């Protein structure tokens, strides 16, 4: 494993402190350490550059140079800046008037179907909402059945499957059922592809126009690092996402992808997937990712 950023930074400053005074070039060495650590944590280069510039501005300030614990001081500045970029605002879902539609988008294998069921379960059990799940995935064999099974395990209703129906017809039927049967929230699980293609984006845009979602959530696998960042940028350009769900944060992802995705889309990370079980979905806490990058 990498030596932690905190250890490296305190190390740099402790070495320097023994010489008596800190200079601007000492700070530059610390910035180099931060830069390397962020790149190793999957943060995209332009984001790293912006970030280091901000930290440097604060670090060359007198408070650090004069501090008896400059290393810890810089660690705190880095932590605070990480939290600021990741967004300190609430990651609550904004659900409009019932039936509020949540559109789930993402590449195949990102965890979209599992996350749809986890979210449905969470809204049902924590907020007592009446939730309907519907799968628009007519591409992957058994995708609709998979959601049906997960819905049952989550004790949430799912739209009955009618074989041969296309994504738009299923959307119409789901909206109709949700309105008629008084659902609070309708979660639409869409088809994914192994990589982004025009057909996928066009179908998604058509579903979005029809369903007018209150939230369009991109589900992205944190372990895919830079690829997840590119995916986020493209999905945001093409369909306009309102938030991100980062899955597989139970793995050893360093979490830097979260920083980059937030930066390139301007949209918040709202939820984090932390396992395969249906209760493994948590609200996003910027401080936890900041600590993960620093530790
Ligand atoms: P989809 O193709 O995007 O719908 O992906 P799935 O929902 O079918 O998920 C693919 C695999 O990832 C399944 O085996 C899930 O159990 C697993 N998975 C989803 N989210 C998480 C997570 O947060 N952590 C872990 N460890 N596995 C996850």
TrEMBL record:
It catalyses: GTP + H2O = GDP + phosphate + H(+). Residues 268-281 form the SRP54-type proteins GTP-binding domain. Keywords: Cytoplasm, GTP-binding, Hydrolase, Nucleotide-binding, Ribonucleoprotein, RNA-binding, Signal recognition particle. Its EC number is 3.6.5.4. GTP binds at residues 106-113, 189-193, 247-250. It is a peripheral membrane protein. It is found in: Cell inner membrane; Cytoplasm. The keyword Cytoplasm applies. It comes from the Bacteria. Part of the signal recognition particle protein translocation system, which is composed of SRP and FtsY. SRP is a ribonucleoprotein composed of Ffh and a 4.5S RNA molecule. Involved in targeting and insertion of nascent membrane proteins into the cytoplasmic membrane. Binds to the hydrophobic signal sequence of the ribosome-nascent chain (RNC) as it emerges from the ribosomes. The SRP-RNC complex is then targeted to the cytoplasmic membrane where it interacts with the SRP receptor FtsY. Interaction with FtsY leads to the transfer of the RNC complex to the Sec translocase for insertion into the membrane, the hydrolysis of GTP by both Ffh and FtsY, and the dissociation of the SRP-FtsY complex into the individual components. Belongs to the GTP-binding SRP family. SRP54 subfamily. Composed of three domains: the N-terminal N domain, which is responsible for interactions with the ribosome, the central G domain, which binds GTP, and the C-terminal M domain, which binds the RNA and the signal sequence of the RNC. This is Signal recognition particle protein. The chain holds residues 1 to 295 of 450 of the full protein.
């Amino acid at each position: 494993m990498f030596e932690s950023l905190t250890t490296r930074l305190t190390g740099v400053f402790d070495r320097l402190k023994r010489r008596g005074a800190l200079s601007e070039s000492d700070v530059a060495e610390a910035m180099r350490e931060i830069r390397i650590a962020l790149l190793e944590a999957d943060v995209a280069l332009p984001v790293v550059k912006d970030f280091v510039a901000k930290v440097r501005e604060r670090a060359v300030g007198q408070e650090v140079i004069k501090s008896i614990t400059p290393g810890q001081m810089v660690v705190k500045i880095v932590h605070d800046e990480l939290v600021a970029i990741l967004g300190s605002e609430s990651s609550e879902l904004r659900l409009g008037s019932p039936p509020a539609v949540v559109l789930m988008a993402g590449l195949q294998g990102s965890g979209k179907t599992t996350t749809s069921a986890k979210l449905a379960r969470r809204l049902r059990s924590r907020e007592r909402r009446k939730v309907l799940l519907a799968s628009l995935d007519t591409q992957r064999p058994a995708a609709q059945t998979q959601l049906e099974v997960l819905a049952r395990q989550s004790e949430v209703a799912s739209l009955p499957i009618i074989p041969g129906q296309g994504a738009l017809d299923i959307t119409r039927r789901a909206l109709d059922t949700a309105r008629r049967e008084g659902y609070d929230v309708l979660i639409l699980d869409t088809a994914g592809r192994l990589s982004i293609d025009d057909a996928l984006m066009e179908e998604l845009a058509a579903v979005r126009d029809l369903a007018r979602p209150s939230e369009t959530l991109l589900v992205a696998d944190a372990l895919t690092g830079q690829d997840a960042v590119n995916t986020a940028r493209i999905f945001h350009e093409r369909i306009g996402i309102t938030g991100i769900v980062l899955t597989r944060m139970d793995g050893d992802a360093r979490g830097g992808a979260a920083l980059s995705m937030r930066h390139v889309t301007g949209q918040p990370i709202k939820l984090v997937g932390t396992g395969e079980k249906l209760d493994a979905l948590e609200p996003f806490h910027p401080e936890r990712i900041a600590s993960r990058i620093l530790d």
